[in-house]
Sequence to fold (398 residues):
Amino acid sequence: MNWKFWQKNKDTANKKKKTKSREWADAVIFAVVAATVIRVFFIEAYTIPTGSMERSLLIGDFLFVSKVNYGARIPMTPVAFPFAHHTMPITGTKAYYDGIQWKYRRLPGLQDIKRNDVVVFNFPDGDTVAVEAQDRDYYDMVRANGREAVHNAYTIISRPVDKRENYIKRCIGIAGDVLTMKDGLVSVNGKPVPMENTGQIDYLVKFKTSDVNFQVFEEMGFKIQRDIMGLSDDTYNFLGTPEMMAKVGKLDFVTSVKVRTAEPGVKEENVFPHDPNRNWNADNWGPILIPKEGLTVKLDSATIPMYQRAITVYEGNKLEKTANGWLINGQKADSYTFKMNYYWMMGDNRHNSLDSRYWGFVPEDHIVGKALFVWMSYDTDGSFFSKIRWNRLFHSIH
Fold:
């Protein structure tokens, strides 16, 4: 007789059946683990909170962001509460433990980042945050008010790379590109790159008469309260795409349509690289060489303002100025070779976007993923039946 077979049946019969609560607990744990794996390595949902990407992405759009296209980033802060990015939703406390930090690693991806890709990334200036003013750039606040004043007024914290705020912008330049901008027009490697119909900027529109039916512009896609602002009886500021403004210019009651940009040479203090020797503004700047892995730059008064943050904060070196030149990690150096690729990101809503023009390069270890498509779009200003933008459901992102 097979006594082992009998013993096996006896053990099985003696096993206690799982309780309902145990079954529910196992199911919840499995669901959390599975969802976390999908979110970290495959695809993640993202919401558009600001208008910096209008008209390509609207406030209230819900996106799916692919981690697979550029290669999923291995978590750099592995101990964290599931589904919370950096802050717990109710308590407001940290949602991660930064006592354990892993080096930056990324799985192989399907493609490299290309110009004009819409990319989600961690905010480069988000390493330091004023808790009571998290929607403001800490470094901008320090430049405007002084470090001591900011630290006296706010609670200041630091965040690891993968726990910094998520941003979404369009990649304008990739590693090794040389960028310039003149009168609001970007040039990449010497070639002008006009905005497509997804990009918008301010225009000065002059009418022949002050008696204008603005319903005409609403039919063209403008929102009267948001996109059109009166400057005088016959002159208005329009916010629109080049294609929309070309239609405006053809109207018989319009005298002129002109791009409204800052004058070259008029300095804006908060424009990257915050160098007193560069009279740059958001519409006129450059040339800027985007760092590339293996690229070597000379260290001098022209390059240091441009690359100091990349050398120190992003690549973890100590940079010091001495009477005899520069020291990197205590060693005399007259040049530096970059270890990572960097990118230049800008919003499609050119005059209403906090982007690389203000905080500079996006390092490759900050890249989260590629925006794929809008799966839901909710318009808070819409009426009861039109709050959902039905025409944007499963709308692909170009």
In short: The radius of gyration is 26 Å. The first helix runs from residue 3 to 14. The chain has a mean pLDDT of 91. The longest strand covers residues 367-377.
